[in-house]
UniProtKB/TrEMBL annotation, chain A:
Belongs to the type I cytokine receptor family. Type 2 subfamily. It comes from the Eukaryota. It is found in: Cell membrane. It comes from Sciurus vulgaris (Eurasian red squirrel). The keyword Transferase does not apply. The lineage of its organism: Eukaryota, Metazoa, Chordata, Craniata, Vertebrata. GO terms for biological process: positive regulation of cell population proliferation. One of its GO terms (cellular component) is receptor complex. The chain crosses the membrane at residues 834-859. Residues 1036-1067, 1086-1097 have a biased composition (Polar residues). Heterodimer composed of LIFR and IL6ST. The heterodimer formed by LIFR and IL6ST interacts with the complex formed by CNTF and CNTFR. Keywords: Cell membrane, Disulfide bond, Glycoprotein, Membrane, Phosphoprotein, Receptor, Repeat, Signal, Transmembrane, Transmembrane helix. It is a single-pass type I membrane protein. This is Leukemia inhibitory factor receptor.
TrEMBL record, chain B:
One of its GO terms (biological process) is neuron development. Induces cardiac myocyte hypertrophy in vitro. Binds to and activates the ILST/gp130 receptor. Its main location: secreted. It comes from Sciurus vulgaris (Eurasian red squirrel). The keyword Secreted applies. Keywords: Cytokine, Secreted. This is Cardiotrophin-1. Belongs to the IL-6 superfamily. InterPro entries: 4_helix_cytokine-like_core, PRF/CT. One of its GO terms (cellular component) is extracellular space. The gene is CTF1. It is found in: Secreted. One of its GO terms (molecular function) is cytokine activity.
Length: 1097, 204
């Protein structure tokens, strides 16, 4: 029965354990078995059998088995429990449980005989370890403490490991509840392994909420996973709860205080307050309140941003108070970057690094650094400095004796974390020496010095590589590297050779190690003058014979510094011939020439330079000068400050060529400088700072032949040509009526400033003060130019001039450098008397002839004339003919009162052929100023001059060209004969005189009349005048010379004499006063001018 | 009875023209110093607030005016006290301020080490408060008023109390600094006002 029972029980347990995994298809089978089991139970109780033998253990060594008493069994029932396979293992007891030693694995039969009221019943059970449950004892919390500053709970308990086999695994489950409402905030598991002994276990937990703000409760239970126990293992019960709460002991009301957290993390702040908290804010942002027990509140901050240096303020505000805390959100230290360790002196190691990303934490929260050297185990700490973000940090580490390898670890740490960087260095290869000090230079000889310096450091075991920089004036910088063995006393010495004597050098030095790492900084510079040596060469020598040919002057140049090798104190000059040697006394240095009286024998001159050390090799030069008959002076012009001289190779010249030069204005012996070039040279460039533009220099090329010099070429030249600074002096040698002879002088060479290329001669009509030769180059047509390119020409005759005319003459010289200044002169040509006579006679003859012809015609046509001009009443006031005059002259051909055709016989036509272009006497230079403008009346095609009848009106000095044109081609010009004999008046005076007052023609009636008033009257209303009037305004008549500009302007070639309407005008009209008569600008008048077309006419 | 009207200790009871020239010059000099420091104190307060972070300096932020050990705020009835008494209080407050300002400077040196101008202003303020206090005491002595009372002694306890307050936390230290700077400004301004009544021409 028991077997069946246990079998069923076991089965039910199995079913119970695995029922969750059963499939639905077996559910009907399970129901059947349960039913059968219940029926068996009922039957058993009816029979008084024991049931429900259960065994549990809490230590695996002892089993506590219990059973349920049968129905009816009560107090006084005795149970006899026998373990069948264990000897003497029957126990009598009165309770329903028994503690037995753990049985070995396998089935064990247990018989329990119950005795009650002399009735007994026996039950058999099969007991197996698999049926035993392991339920550990409830653990006890030894201690629960809190670190409020870190919001951490610390829990300790005893694991009771001695009760269980060694290496049993234990799972601890810890629950943390918060607030009075016991909200579960944490359920953690903690695994341990038992050691066979009792051990106190620790567990810590950090709360996200400050522990001060709410009570926290903690409980623990365990589960022992003993691998050798095959029974069922169960969790122990929860330990009694322990709690942590904060007792206010200070003013602090807000938690956590001054916490440092990682940027981006979450944090909860709470405020312990008896007052009602109204507002919570972080920075300037308000936060929602979370209510805790009592009046406490909390706020949660998610993903906090980086704080300023002074932190982020969290403030809780009550009705009348304010509480706050500060949180510092930053970063853990970045790995130290660019960690580098080196030494300046092999005594102290300097490690520098860059802190990397800023932590945003300063002050006591700033990163601290520790430099640890692993081989020696020594370390140094970095003293906190509030350096700027990107500054490099440095730490000094004292070097250890006999240690070259160093393994440094730089640890960085701040409240948020730590980082490290490492570097392994052989410090002898990381030497960056200090700048050398006490740098000195000492002489060894004229070409060598020693350099000494001090380099602090312990370099005894290594070699130093030093760079010496050598600077010399006007020379390329030189660098030399030297390797020196390191010494303990830090003093170093090297020799520097291959220097130049008597030369100022500037030295400086820097050092590194042979295993180069870095150069030191440069030492200070030291200037040093090397000592003197004997001059390496003799001076460059030349000689000149004095002007009288008796003395030979020896010149020499000072030796350049690299050849003098010292300060030249004096020179020794000697001359030797085959017979004797003559030596002069010592010549002190500043003097570089000597004069020796010599005969014409051949001498060799020797010059030696001496300094404090010794004498130079002698420079020798022959005194003899070989004549050269085939010599001509050439010209040359330089470029810039240089002049190029070339010559043909002359095989006879065995030694060098010499070019000497001098200012041409200096007297002989002239020598500015000379230059020697090798005999195989055929050209050289002469360059000197002494050369000046506009100065003429003479260059002489000498060839050296058998120790004698022969002048090969003589060249005159300029470095740069300039324009002459003076004008040539010129005078008028002769003057005639139509020509002037001009003569000029040479310009001195000093004032010429270039090779003379010619002269420009300008002339024009004009008088002093009124005509200025302005704008010579501006193309004025009234200026004639002669370009005289034959520089040997010193005179010029200017022909074809007008008589008794003032001419303005200008002469200037020019070179390739430009035009020189002008020199001007005014000359008046003489009067031409023959021409004057002809000029008088011909017009008179013509006038007479015209008069005769006119008289004849008038006589023959007298009836027609009478009808036409004097119909019946010769009353001029009724004569309409008086109305035509002005309008006709103004070009109104529509008026028929006076027809021009009847006057045709009065035309006089003069023909002549002229050049259309003004003549330029010298064709080499075509000056535009000689051109006459087109459109001028004289340039009209045909070149004929018509002296024709014109209606009797003359408008002189017509200001309006339109009126001038309207005047047509015929005008009458009244000539003041007397003015021909007047002294030449100035044009200005002419302009000032009143032309009206000087009117030549007077009407036959009403004389005299106030001319001015009459002019107005006539001009306004001719009809109002009484008697006969000329048909024009006589006040406007001017006597104009044909060659005057004004006559030119008014077509002076068209000349008429008298008016056919003026019956009494067969005479020259003479003005009453000379000064009232119009004058010509030209001041003179000649017959030839009248008929010839002069350029200025 | 109004102190200004009757007290013999009140220099204003005597006409200001009775002041000796050198005393008058000293008063003017002290008054000028107080006026200058008033401006500096305002600048210090602004600079201090600027570097404490929000909500310091925001409108509406007014932490409680907690008492500072060894230094009280000017009493509301300060203006009603006799002038020498007022000057004595001024001198006492000015003497108490330097150690407090030093505490604030040390705290700010850890909190804002990269704001040298604020640190320099705090250092200057301590020195200037000391100088102004000494000048006021000199004026008081010249006026024949007792300069120092037992409360005048620069108290190490004051500084210790302030340091302890700073150690309580960064936020309380910030508030303490704000309070000290505010008190400095108030006392310097009050001193300037009190001295202005001694200046012959009246308030500047």
């Amino acid at each position: 029965t028991m077997d069946v029972y246990f079998g069923w029980r076991h089965l039910s347990q199995v079913v119970g354990n695995k029922r969750m995994r059963m499939t639905s298809s077996f559910q009907w089978l399970l129901s059947t078995f349960i039913l059968l089991y219940l029926m068996n139970e009922v039957n058993s109780q009816k029979k008084g059998a024991l049931r429900d033998l259960k065994c549990v253990t809490n230590n695996l060594q002892e089993w506590d088995c219990s059973w349920k008493a049968p129905l009816g069994a009560g107090r006084g029932t005795v149970y006899e429990v026998c373990i069948e396979d264990r000897p003497r293992s029957c126990y009598r007891l009165e309770k329903t449980n028994i503690k037995i030693a753990a049985l070995s694995p396998g089935d064990h039969e247990i018989r329990i005989n119950s005795l009650h009221d002399l009735q007994s019943s026996m039950s058999k059970f099969i007991l197996n370890e698999r049926n035993v449950s392991l339920v550990p004892d409830t653990p006890k919390i030894l201690n629960l403490s809190a670190d409020f500053s870190t919001s951490t709970l610390h829990l300790t308990w005893n694991d009771k490991g001695s009760l269980f086999p060694y290496h049993s695994n234990v799972i601890w489950e810890i629950k943390i509840l918060r607030k009075e409402s016991m909200e579960l905030v944490k359920l953690a598991t903690y695994n341990t392994t038992l050691s066979g002994k009792d051990a106190v276990r620790h567990w810590s937990w950090t709360s996200d909420m400050p522990l001060e703000c709410a009570t926290h409760h903690v409980g623990i239970r365990r589960y022992i996973d003993c691998p050798h126990f095959s029974g069922r293992k169960e969790w122990s019960d929860w330990s009694p709860m322990k709690n942590i709460s904060w007792t206010p002991d200070s003013q602090t009301k807000v938690f956590p205080q001054d916490k440092v957290i990682l940027v981006g993390s979450d944090i909860t702040f709470c405020c312990v307050s008896q007052e009602k908290v109204l507002l919570a804010q972080i920075g300037h942002k308000n936060c929602p309140l979370i209510q805790l027990d009592g009046g406490n509140v909390a706020i949660e901050i998610h993903n906090i941003s980086v704080s300023a240096n002074s932190g982020t303020n969290v403030v809780f505000t009550t009705e009348d108070n304010m509480f706050g805390t500060v949180v510092f959100a930053g970063y853990p230290p970045d790995s130290p970057q660019k960690l580098n360790c080196e030494t300046h002196d092999l005594k102290e190691i300097i490690c520098s690094w860059n802190p990397g990303r800023p932590t945003a934490l300063v002050g006591p929260r700033n990163t601290s650094y520790t430099l640890f050297e692993s081989f020696s185990g020594k370390y140094v700490k970095f003293k906190r400095v509030e350096a700027l973000t990107n500054e490099s940090y440095q730490l000094l580490f004292q070097m250890l004796p006999n240690q070259e390898m160093y393994n440094f670890t730089l640890n960085a740490r701040n409240p948020l974390g730590r980082s490290a960087s490492t570097i392994l260095v052989n410090i002898t290869e990381r030497v960056s020496p200090h700048a050398p000090t006490s740098f000195k230079v000492k002489d060894i000889n004229s070409t060598a010095v020693t350099l000494s310096w001090h380099l602090p450091g312990n370099f005894a075991k290594i070699y130093l590589l030093c760079e010496i920089e050598i600077n010399k004036a006007n020379s390329i910088q030189e660098s030399r590297n030297v390797t020196v063995k390191g010494v303990e006393n830090s003093s170093y010495l090297v020799a520097v050779d291959k220097l130049n004597p008597y030369t100022v050098y500037t030295f400086r030095i820097r050092c590194s190690t042979e295993t180069f790492w870095k150069w030191s900084k440069w030492s200070n510079e030291r200037k040093h003058l090397t000592t003197e040596a004997i001059p390496s060469k003799g001076p460059d020598t030349w000689r000149e014979w004095s002007s009288d040919g008796k003395n030979l002057i020896i010149y020499w140049k000072p030796l350049p510094i690299n050849e003098a090798n010292g300060k030249i104190l004096s020179y020794n000059v000697s001359c030797s011939s085959n017979e004797e040697t003559q030596s002069l006394s010592e010549i002190p240095d500043p003097q570089h020439k000597a004069e020796i009286q010599l005969d014409k024998n051949d001498y060799i001159i020797s010059v030696v330079a001496k300094n404090s050390v010794g004498s130079s090799p002698p420079s020798k030069i022959a005194s003899m000068e070989i004549p050269n008959d085939d010599l001509k002076v050439e010209q040359a012009v330089g470029i810039g400050k240089k002049i190029l001289l070339t010559w043909h190779h002359n095989p006879n010249m065995t030694c060098d060529y010499v070019i000497k030069w001098c200012n041409s204005s200096r007297s002989d012996p002239c020598l500015m400088d000379w230059k020697k070039v090798p005999s195989n040279t055929t050209e050289t460039i002469i360059e000197s700072d002494q050369f000046r533009p506009g100065i003429r220099y003479n260059f002489f090329l000498y060839g050296c032949r058998n120790q004698g010099y022969q002048l090969l070429r003589s060249i005159t030249g300029y470095i740069e040509e300039l324009a002459p600074i003076v004008a040539p002096n010129f005078t008028v040698e002769d003057t005639s009526a139509d020509s002037i002879l001009v003569k000029w002088e040479d310009i001195p060479v000093e004032e010429l400033r270039g090779f003379l290329r010619g002269y420009l001669f300008y002339f024009e009509k004009g008088e002093r003060d009124t005509s200025k030769m302005r704008g010579l180059e501006s193309g004025r047509s009234d200026i004639k130019v002669k370009n005289i390119t034959d520089i040997s020409q010193k005179t010029l005759r200017i022909a074809d001039l007008q008589g008794k005319t003032s001419y303005h003459l200008v002469l200037r010289a020019y070179t390739d450098g430009g035009m020189g200044p002008e020199k001007s002169m005014f000359v008046v040509t003489k009067e031409n008397s023959v021409g004057l006579i002809i000029a008088i006679l011909i017009p008179v003859g013509v006038a007479v002839l015209v008069g005769i012809v006119t008289s004849i015609l008038c006589y023959r046509k007298r009836e027609w004339i009478k009808e036409t001009f004097y119909p019946d009443i010769p009353n001029p006031e009724n004569c309409k003919a008086l109305q035509f005059q002005k309008s006709v002259c103004e070009g109104s051909s529509a008026l028929k009162t006076l027809e021009m055709n009847p006057c045709t016989p009065n035309n006089v036509e003069v023909l002549e052929t002229r050049s259309t272009v003004p003549k330029i006497e010298d064709t080499e230079i075509m000056s535009p100023v000689a051109e006459r403008p087109e459109g001028h009346s004289e340039a009209e095609p045909g070149n004929h001059v018509a002296v024709s009848y014109c209606p009797p009106i003359i408008e002189e000095e017509l200001p309006d060209p339109a009126v001038d044109e309207a005047g047509g081609t015929a005008q009458v010009i009244y000539i003041d004969v007397q003015s021909m004999y007047q002294p030449q008046a100035k044009p200005e005076e002419e302009q000032d005189s009143d032309p009206v007052a000087g009117a030549g023609y007077k009407p036959q009636m009403r004389l005299p009349i106030n001319s001015a008033a009459e002019a107005t009257a006539v001009g306004d209303d001719v009809d109002k005048t009484a008697g006969y009037r000329p048909q024009a305004n006589v006040n406007t008549w001017h006597l104009v010379s044909p060659d005057s500009p004004r006559s030119t302007d008014s077509n002076s070639e068209i000349v008429s004499f008298g008016s056919p309407c003026s019956i009494n005008s067969r005479q020259f009209l003479i003005p009453p006063k000379d000064e009232d008569s119009p004058k010509s600008n030209g001041g003179g008048w000649s017959f030839t001018n009248f008929f010839q077309n002069k350029p200025n006419d | 009875m109004s102190q200004r009207e009757g007290s013999l200790e009140d220099p204003q009871a005597d006409d200001s023209v009775s002041l000796l020239p050198h005393l008058e010059a000293k008063i003017r000099q002290t008054h000028s110093l107080a006026r200058l420091l008033t401006k500096y104190a305002e600048q210090l307060l602004q600079e201090y607030v600027q570097h404490q972070g929000d909500p310091f300096g925001l409108p509406g932020f007014s932490p409680p005016r907690l008492p500072v050990a060894g230094l009280s705020a000017p009493a509301p009835g300060h203006a009603g006290l006799p002038l020498p008494e007022r000057l004595r209080l001024d001198a006492a407050a000015l003497a108490a301020l330097p150690p407090l300002l030093d505490v604030v400077r040390r705290h700010q040196a850890e909190l804002n080490p990269r704001v040298p101008r604020l640190l320099r202003r705090l250092e200057d303020a301590a020195r200037q408060a000391r100088a102004l206090g000494a000048a006021v005491e000199t004026v008081l002595a010249a006026l024949g008023a007792a300069a120092r009372g037992p409360w005048h002694e620069p108290s190490a306890a004051t500084a210790a109390a302030a340091a302890a307050a700073s150690a309580a936390g960064v936020f309380p230290a910030k508030v303490l600094g704000l309070r000290v700077c505010g008190l400095y400004s108030e006392w310097v301004s009050r001193t300037e006002g009190d001295l202005s009544q001694l200046v012959p021409e009246g308030p500047a």
